[in-house]
């Protein structure tokens, strides 16, 4: 409920500000990646895939994030700005300058931190005002391509823009109710604004969903993809292990994501015996005691391995006691169909 209300307030605030203020054009290519619904579509790996593809084509990429649950500006600064009716001139938070990781996940937010960790040569900035952070990326780092993470509802930044919308195959339009009654940020008819549509977590059985999408937008390219496990990495040591490390083992999981069922299901497909699962709310920041309680309960169920997601692992505190191996699963996006649409999108961005 708290996540739904937050998204509703943000959508309303963005709508009012972006419709009252003039749209900004920064003279560079903008790609907005987002959802119609609140959370859980697998957006971060898609942003990562676009960043890698654009970088491979010679673009200087910056990812601009709002930084949900990053540490806010000091309250006296925000109050003073509002009293004096002045804009926030504070520079955006630089999570990565394209060379070094500069902030931790608490200050940056878990998703920007994860993107910066996985993308060594990409600039990652956090600021509510993505026009300001876009200008900063251009002037400070010479970026020519801006990727808006969760940017479909950010109308203020226009110009040469491609809109990429993600739809979860399992829950494409939630319960078909708008916030706060449901999980839709805007009506499905607004899918008509999209240039490219990703069906995420696809299993190939998408004929009916594709017909729905084409009714709403007959011109957008449709790409089907799935989250493909790559390897497991020790949360605390960084050691990597093959996917086969789970085969036939008793496993316990802990997560704080929007749809933990998909994560847990992917582990079962790797042949493990899931003996215990502990779920928290999306973006939950774990305490040391919560992790110790999880470890103790997992041991009582004879678990041999502990597994979490990479998004959760960046929110873990340090642990002095490690009774069992603790891994996170590294995943990437695998395109199942529509690869030509993805490449065409990248080409349009790079060579228009």
Q: Report the strand count.
A: 13
% residues in beta strands: 15-25%
Oligomer: single chain
Following the backbone from N to C, one meets helices and strands in this order, namely: HEHEHEHHEHEEEHEEEHEHEHEH
CATH class of the largest domain: Alpha Beta
How far apart the termini lie comes to 43 Å
Which fold name fills CATH's third level, the topology of the largest domain? Rossmann fold
Structural class: alpha/beta
CATH architecture of the largest domain: 3-Layer(aba) Sandwich
Q: Structurally, how many domains make up the residues?
A: 2
Mean pLDDT: 90
Shape: globular
Q: Pick out the low-confidence regions.
A: 13-21
Radius of gyration: 20 Å
Q: For the report, how would you describe the main beta sheet?
A: 13 strands, mixed
Q: Superfamily at the CATH H level of the largest domain?
A: P-loop containing nucleotide triphosphate hydrolases
Number of helices: 11
Describe this structure in words.
The chain is α/β, with parallel strands linked by helices and 352 residues long. The chain folds into 2 domains: 2-227 and 334-351, P-loop containing nucleotide triphosphate hydrolases (Rossmann fold), CATH 3.40.50.300; 228-332, Rossmann fold (3-Layer(aba) Sandwich), CATH 3.40.50. Helix content is 33%, strand content 24%. The protein is built from 11 helices and 13 strands. It has helices at 2-20, 43-56, 75-83, 105-108, 110-118, 130-141, 207-216, 260-269, 288-300, 310-313, 339-351; strands at 29-35, 61-65, 93-97, 123-126, 145-149, 160-168, 196-200, 221-234, 240-241, 250-255, 273-279, 305-309, 326-337. Strands 1, 2, 3, 4, 5, 6, 7, 8, 9, 10, 11, 12 and 13 form a 13-stranded mixed β-sheet that branches. The longest helix is centred in the N-terminal third of the chain and has 19 residues, at 2-20.
């Amino acid at each position: 409920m708290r996540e739904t209300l937050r998204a509703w307030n943000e959508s309303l605030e963005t709508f009012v500000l972006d419709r009252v203020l003039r749209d900004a054009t920064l003279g560079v290519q903008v790609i907005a990646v987002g959802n119609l619904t609140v959370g859980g579509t697998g957006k971060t790996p898609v942003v990562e895939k676009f960043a890698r593809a654009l970088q491979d084509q010679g673009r200087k990429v910056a990812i601009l994030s709002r930084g949900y649950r990053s540490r806010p500006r000091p309250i006296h600064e925000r109050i003073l700005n509002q009293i004096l009716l002045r804009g926030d001139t504070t520079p955006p938070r630089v999570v990565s300058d394209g060379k070094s990781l500069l902030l931790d996940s608490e200050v940056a937010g878990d998703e920007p931190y994860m993107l910066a960790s996985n993308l060594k040569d990409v600039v990652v900035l956090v600021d509510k005002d993505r026009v300001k952070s876009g200008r900063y990326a251009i002037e400070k780092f010479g970026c020519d391509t801006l990727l808006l993470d969760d940017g479909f509802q950010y109308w203020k930044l226009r110009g040469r823009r491609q809109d990429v919308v993600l739809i979860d195959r399992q829950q494409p339009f939630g319960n078909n109710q708008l916030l706060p009654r449901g999980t839709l940020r805007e009506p499905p008819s607004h899918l008509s604004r999209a240039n490219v549509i990703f069906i995420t977590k696809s299993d190939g059985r998408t004929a009916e969903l594709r017909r729905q999408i084409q009714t709403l937008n007959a011109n957008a390219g449709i790409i089907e993809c799935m989250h493909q496990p790559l390897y497991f990495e020790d949360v605390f040591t960084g050691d990597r292990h093959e996917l086969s490390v789970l085969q036939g083992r008793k496993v316990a999981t802990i997560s704080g994501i929007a749809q933990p069922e998909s994560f847990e299901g992917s582990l079962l497909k790797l042949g493990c015996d899931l003996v215990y699962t502990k779920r928290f709310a999306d973006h939950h920041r774990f305490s040391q005691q919560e992790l110790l309680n999880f470890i103790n309960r997992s041991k009582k169920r004879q678990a041999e391995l502990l597994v979490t997601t990479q998004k959760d692992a960046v929110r873990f505190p340090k642990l002095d006691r490690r009774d069992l191996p603790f891994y996170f699963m590294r995943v990437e996006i695998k395109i199942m169909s529509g690869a030509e649409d993805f490449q065409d999108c990248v080409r349009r961005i790079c060579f228009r």
